[in-house]
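Dear colleague,

Following up on yesterday's call, I've attached the two folding results inline so they're easy to grep. Please treat them as preliminary; we haven't cross-checked anything against experimental data yet. The first protein's sequence and structure tokens come first.
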Amino acid sequence: MSLGSPGRGALRRIYQEVAPRYELVNHLLTLGLDIRWRRRAARVAVASEGGSWLDVCSGTGEMAAELHRAANRAITVAAFDLSVPMLVRARGKRRLRPDAFASGDVAHLPFRNGTFTGVTIAFAARNLNTSRRHLEIRLRECFRVLIPGGRLINLETSQPESRLWRRLFHHYAALTVRPLARTVSGSRSGYAYLAHTIPRFYSAAELDEMLFAAGAARVTHIRLWGGIAALHIAEKAR
């Protein structure tokens, strides 16, 4: 399923445009649930292991900061994103080291095989989904940089199994994302694109299949709020 996602240059422009109020808009649109979900994802990620983590499509560094907050032992977190303006804002996060940032394309991560204990992606897999094949390529690249037995933690909007709940969720996204986000952020194109991706992304079961195809040996997922979001935990073969 392709979302008709824009190219790298267009995505850079979109996120440069929305960067100043990106976090505020997300919190308003989700009624603060995105904060709770990131914290839950971070607890799942670092509950049993420390080590080094890569936060892919880190944006303003919210997920990277939550990993540090949740860790009960020393960890390092590298924030990686296509948008430099977003990473500039991430540098302001108190819990992030100033040398743990890199910019580039997820299809070509600038790290050696087996570099990281874990990889996280929070509300960004939709941006990587220029096509199903391209998303699998980018997920495979995330598995490449994991150590054997390392885990990819993906938090993303999903599709509720209940037809009624799914329809209500899609109506909410259609009615609120563009007008509210445009009013708060001043961006027309950015949130038109983001609203377009929500009803067109994969179900939790479909994303399970893609994670296996990309190299996972084991995959589980947790549905959040009736399935409007899902937390996937995918382990690389040992």
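Below is the second protein, in the same order (sequence, then structure):
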Amino acid sequence: MGTLLEVADLSVRFGGVVALDRVSFQVEQGQVVALIGPNGAGKTTLFNVITRVYRPSQGTVLVDGRSVLAIRPHNVVRHGLARTFQNVALFRSMTVLDNVLVGDHTHTKSGWLQASVPLPGAVAAESAARKRALEMIDFVGMRMHADRPVATLPFGVQKRVELARALVSKPRLLLLDEPAGGISHEEVDAMARLLRRVHTELGVTMLLVEHHMNFVMGISDRVVVLDFGKKIAEGSPAEVQRNPAVIEAYLGAA
């Protein structure tokens, strides 16, 4: 179906520290690609380059053939990119519904003036946004929590709320930073099933960072492995599991 994301010769340096060293890989439309490696391997740094938090020292990142570096950071979501975070980045005093509505801001057509006055257009836009948000809350199975403040919810539930907030923007490429991190074994299995539904029912291409190997191997089409900022392997889950360099660097030598 074509290449959606292309990372080419990407390097990031923080002073004398090389966080990424000439990393290249591609994500095809419709794929689920996992990015794995030890702590400090450069995985989250790569996410931060793709979403315009960091500017690389060299290299390019293309989405649909267009350089991400030409996009202003606040406009990344308008170009079909959305992400979640290793430590959920939600507004804790706001309700689940209000948090998900934040992710829908690019689809709300009324401006600040219209939104401040209860004109018919603003009311209709707000109603449509609320409907979209509730549909996505339903999709992640959190409708019973829609009106609860996020701070009162368990961490695993907050992970689903953050996922709903990303999905309501209708991304073509979803970046997931440790979706299985910090949750129970049962929640890990449930999250894997939910992400398969995101992939198959919503048609979202995904790039995920994850340390939970059973999760990675069960959900991914391809796996890219980083170690000390360099790509040391890439292939199918089975190929990566057998790769001696991966076993030594990440999975653990026998």
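For the second protein, one point worth flagging: The first strand starts at residue 3 and ends at 14.

Best wishes,
A.L.
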